[in-house]
Design a protein that fits this description.
This protein is an alpha+beta fold. It has one domain: Cysteine proteinases (Cathepsin B, Chain A, Alpha-Beta Complex), CATH 3.90.70.10. It is 38% helix and 15% strand. Strands 1, 4, 5, 6, 7, 8, 9, 10, 11, 12 and 13 form an 11-stranded mixed beta sheet that branches. Strands 2-3 form a two-stranded antiparallel sheet. Helix 2 packs across helix 4, helix 3 packs across helix 4 and helix 3 runs antiparallel to helix 6. It is globular and about 75 Å long. The relative contact order is 0.16.
Length: 396
């Protein structure tokens, strides 16, 4: 009996001493990075609805790293409060006949630092209510309700009090912004930090690929979160994908506005895929693998992410239809930082998400080429990441 207890204790000690990685479930999609653009760490937007800012700040941090070889952790919330104040003003000027939401686009982060400078996360983290992560449910509700009050003009006109009240609300929920702070041992403020590592907003461009728009011409994407009416330059879908590859291969990260409500975007597997649903084509992709499975079993296995399954070839027409029928919407923003390949040689894009490091592949998702082709609304990048031919076509 004593010997049995001793053996059990030794076995328990051995298990405890093993690294936790051994107990982690192996990913179905075994993807190897081929291209990874230098960038900063994954952050957590939590319950803030500000993915646009986390993706935008991620791109800005990567650009500062690329241009100045300086790694910096910038405050998302400093830019979020700039956006809220400006959205509120637009909401009042348009007497409530416009969208007022936490959402936005990657380009908005560039507007914010261009107009208001930037701060480090250490100087301003936006967490003043005791929470460890961001939760903006109450903040947004208070601002939205106050906007309705202002627009009702209870004094017979729009009061001059609202700008100060908006700032006070932001101070309560995000904290007051410091006048000065330190970075790398130097005292600075928001403007001086932006001037120390300047990024020219004119260097950046938004590109898309929709057949209802004229190619190589700018247009305003008619979506709710494009509250700044930023122009998007149109091209063919094949060209869009080629420009994405060119940017990544030349050291530029790319902001990505896309849809993650599709069933092919898996929180469990950490991938985004567009699976083939034609059983005949699935069988032809691997006759040995599917030989013993019935048609119903193959169909039932779709989107269970228990094995790597073949994907559709996404055409320009499919991309356009997905946008027009609402299958593709602008419900999330992330940062594309690289290219990888799975165990079958299929190409994926490595995407930095803002859902903390506990999800996906340590906070990253891998989205297949078909998924990016189908669900991209537009891309944001430094125009130097474009090919010379495309810059000429766009007149940049």
């Amino acid at each position: 009996m004593k010997r049995t207890k001793t053996m059990l204790m030794l076995a328990l000690a051995l298990v405890i001493s093993m690294p936790m990685s051994l107990f982690a479930q192996e990913k179905v999609y075994q993807i190897t990075d081929d291209v990874v653009v230098p960038h900063t760490s994954v952050k957590n937007q939590s319950q803030s609805g500000t993915c646009w800012c986390f993706a935008g700040v991620g791109m800005i941090e990567a650009e500062i790293l690329r241009k100045y070889n300086v790694e910096i952790d910038l405050s998302e919330m400093y830019l979020v409060r700039w956006a809220y104040a400006n959205k509120f003003e637009k909401y009042i000027r348009m007497q409530g006949v416009c969208n007022f939401s936490p959402g936005g686009e990657v380009f908005d982060a560039l507007y914010a630092i261009n107009e208001n400078g930037m701060m480090t996360e250490e100087a301003y983290n936006g967490l003043v209510l005791g929470d460890k992560t961001h939760n903006h449910g109450e903040l947004h509700t208070v601002l939205a309700e106050y906007g309705k009050i202002v627009n009702k003009q209870h004094n017979g006109k729009i009061s001059k009090a609202w700008p100060n009240m908006v700032q006070e609300i932001l101070n309560v929920y995000l904290g007051e912004t410091p006048q000065t702070f330190e970075f790398n041992g130097e005292k600075c403020n928001a403007k001086s930090l932006a001037e120390k590592y300047p990024l020219n907003i004119e260097d950046y461009v938004q590109i898309g690929a929709f057949t209802n728009q004229e190619n190589y011409k700018p247009y305003i994407m008619p979506i709710q979160d494009n509250w700044t009416n930023t122009l998007t330059y149109n091209m063919t879908l094949d060209e869009l994908m080629a420009e994405l590859d060119n940017a990544l291969n030349n050291g530029y990260t790319v902001g990505w506005a896309q849809d993650v409500s599709d069933k092919g975007f898996s929180r469990k597997a950490g991938v985004g895929v567009v699976l083939e649903n034609d059983v005949k084509k699935i069988r032809l992709s691997d006759e040995k693998k599917y030989k013993k499975m019935s048609d119903d079993e193959i169909t039932a296995s779709l989107y269970k992410f228990e094995s790597v399954m073949p994907e559709k070839e996404v055409t320009e027409e499919m991309h356009q239809e997905a946008y027009e029928n609402g299958q593709t919407t602008d419900d999330h923003s992330m940062l594309i930082v690289g290219i990888g390949y799975d165990q079958n040689g299929t190409k994926y894009y490595k995407v930095k998400n803002s859902w903390d490091v506990t999800r996906g592949y340590d906070g990253y998702w891998y989205c297949s080429e078909p998924y990016v082709r189908l669900h991209t609304m537009f891309l944001t990048l430094n125009q130097e990441g474009l090919t010379s031919d495309m810059k000429a076509k766009l007149g940049l």
